[in-house]
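Handoff note, outgoing to incoming analyst
You'll be picking up this chain. Sequence as last confirmed:
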Amino acid sequence: MSVRPILWQIKKRLLLACVRFKFWFDVYSSGAEPVSFVCNICGTPCRVPPYVMSRERLSCYGCGSTIRFRSVVNALSIALEIGLMPLPANPVRKSIVGIGMTDSECYAGKLEKKFSYRNTYFHKGPKLDILNLDNSDDGLADFIICSDVLEHVAPPVHLAFQNLFRLLKRGGVLVLTVPLVDEAFAREHFPGLGEYHFESRGDRRVLVNRTASGSYEEFNELVFHGGEGETLEMRLFSREWLLKELENAGFVKVRVLDKDYPDFGIFWRQDISVPLVAWK
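Most recent structure output, in case you need it:
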């Protein structure tokens, strides 16, 4: 057995121990009423300071989950009607086939133990390019998790929605999150994107694009999520745009899960990033 996974696990445990200590220190030093919940991913009972309860901030010191990660697992439980309980308490259901699209390792490994689930990636195996599907994958999945992915897919994004629909069995379900914004600000950043590359302009990176007509254009207000590379933000969605794309792709029912689930540490202070569940 390679020593690298063991070292990674030790590092993770030490990090989470430090986080847990800081949470407790902050709770008692500030005098603020702690937020108590049971993580629905790992089953850890948590008591944390209120300031960590935001969408992307680590708020479980058992597995390192965020509100978004817990909301994704909660949405999957609702969609599959398997009961609202922590994943470790759920029975194994290998008859249910699932696909993850670069899902967090925070919950991907646990889903593998419970379902016939495969996490996929764009740049490494097992690979899945949602804009270029193999026909053999049609109707493969009972569920797909696509969390904060579609804002990075190259245009035209409607192809991604159509292919997500293709991947699902009839009656299958898509669990989807994207950062949502007000409709006035929802837009494609690079609507004419064709052949493109990045260049440096002083201390900034710019995107140089060659359109279908052969003309060139440059964009210098680039937004990267989680670092530079393949995490370039291609667009911002509004709820209305997202619902319309799902409808056009053929999904017959969509449910927006904007309800709080305090027992699992899921709170939505802003209606900008709640998960959606869409049925084929």
